[in-house]
Write a structure and sequence with these properties.
378 residues, alpha/beta, 2 domains, seven-stranded mixed sheet, three-stranded antiparallel sheet, binds S-adenosylmethionine, binds zinc ion, tRNA (guanine(26)-N(2))-dimethyltransferase, Trm1
């Protein structure tokens, strides 16, 4: 390892990282991968883990299946006082050497490393009393090949967190790959990031179904280069049908979720574009987001987390799929409304409406497209 290693601080944790990862545009994979731009995702993950373990009765054990130099696991071990054990796993021994150096400088006693292929590591922890209450999977690209072994290593009523960075596939550039990895295909829309998240959750649902497991999404987030989903794993099969389709009409911009495909637009009769099969259940659990809001104040995290969490709380119980101010403005050929005004107008007409954490110019509502355009035009 000739590369210069420097010390940085993220949250309140000291991390050793290759100097190149802080200076180069694309962080190098050698001697170990570290992306400083993913710090917001790690901040949210510290908040989510802390919220999940609040009042949690079972062992507070965290596994990172693809840890790189261990940034996430080190922060969890150091910043969440209740944690009992963290094991970070990677195939890269250099990354794990660096992780151990960081553990030492933070005086961590609850931190272990494992050098193994992810599924071998997780499978060696699939027995009932050897599982973790939180399992994190943060690969290069798609998490789909790790979902099965990750679920098996998660305690019942534990939490599984997955990252996906294969954005081109999830955004509709390569539909064959999307079908292969996620079982469903996206449609290019203004709300493509929500479709991407629902495809990931759809894939989890198919895999979990085989194992007689179900799950409940607790929180999802998206930034420039990644998607993340946090799910509570339940040891009962799913009772309700939560797999379906997003029906989208490019002509009149109508959109909604359905269990079955609908080929003609219910509003204008135009041919629809259909995303799926994918997850059509909730993306957020309101009580969990409220816990995130509470624990956040005791942690050192980016201010941006506040707005993300506040918006997630607002939108938690609103319908699937959002609209953007820009697309409605271009339909009615006028300047976009301010977000607050748009929401107030919808609420004044008796509809539910909220901002969305997934898009700064987006809003959710139970009002349908023809009514939205009328309300915005007046
Ligand atoms: C995106 S990085 C992880 C970044 C890390 N979670 C963080 O927040 O800094 C992905 C890591 O997966 C490791 N990796 C890739 N394939 C693997 C496999 N099959 N088993 C174990 N580790 C693997 C790579 O060495 C790399 O360190
Ligand atoms: Zn239509």
């Amino acid at each position: 390892m000739n590369e210069e290693i420097i010390e940085i601080t993220e949250g309140s944790t000291k991390l050793f990282v290759p100097k190149g990862s802080m200076t180069e545009k694309v962080p190098p994979k050698e001697p170990a991968f570290f992306n400083p731009r993913a710090s917001l995702s790690r901040d949210l993950s510290i908040i989510a883990c802390s919220a999940f373990w609040k009042d949690y009765k079972f062992p507070k054990i965290f596994f990172d299946g693809l840890s790189g130099l261990g940034a996430r696991g080190l922060r969890i071990a150091n910043e969440i006082s209740e944690v009992e054990k963290v094991i970070v796993n990677d195939v890269n021994p250099n990354a794990l050497d660096i992780a151990l150096r960081s553990a030492k400088i933070n005086n961590l006693e609850n931190f272990e490393i494992s050098e193994n292929e992810t599924c071998r590591f997780l499978s060696s922890h699939s027995r009932m009393n050897e599982r973790a209450s939180i399992v994190d999977i943060d690969p290069f690209g798609s998490p789909s090949k790790y979902i099965d072994c990750a679920i098996r290593a998660t305690m019942h009523s534990g939490m599984l967190a997955l990252t996906a960075t294969d954005l081109q596939v999830l955004h509709g550039l390569f539909n064959k790959a999307a079908k292969r990895r996620y079982y469903g295909t996206p449609v290019k829309t203004e709300f493509s990031n929500e479709i991407a998240i629902r495809l990931i959750l759809g894939c989890v649902s198919f895999v979990a179904g085989r194992l007689d497991i179900s799950f409940q999404p607790l929180f999802v987030d998206h930034d420039m280069h990644y998607y993340r989903t946090y799910m509570k794993i339940l040891n009962t099969p799913e009772k309700e049908e939560k797999i379906g389709y997003i029906i989208f009409c490019r002509s009149c911009k109508d959109r909604y979720t359905e269990i079955t495909r609908q080929d003609k637009c219910r509003k204008c009769g135009h041919e629809t574009e259909i995303a799926g099969p994918l997850w059509i259940g909730k993306l957020f659990e309101k009580e969990f987001i409220q816990k995130m809001k509470n624990v956040k104040n005791d942690l050192i995290v980016n201010k941006k987390c506040d707005r993300i969490i506040e918006r997630a709380e607002e939108e938690a119980e609103l319908p699937a799929t959002y609209y953007t101010l820009d697309e409605i403005a271009s339909m009615i050929k006028s300047a976009p409304l301010k977000l607050n005004e748009a929401i107030e107008r919808l609420r004044a007409q008796g509809y539910k409406a909220s901002m969305t954490s997934l898009n700064p110019g987006g809003f959710r509502t139970d009002c349908e497209i023809d009514k939205i355009t009328q309300i915005f035009q007046n």
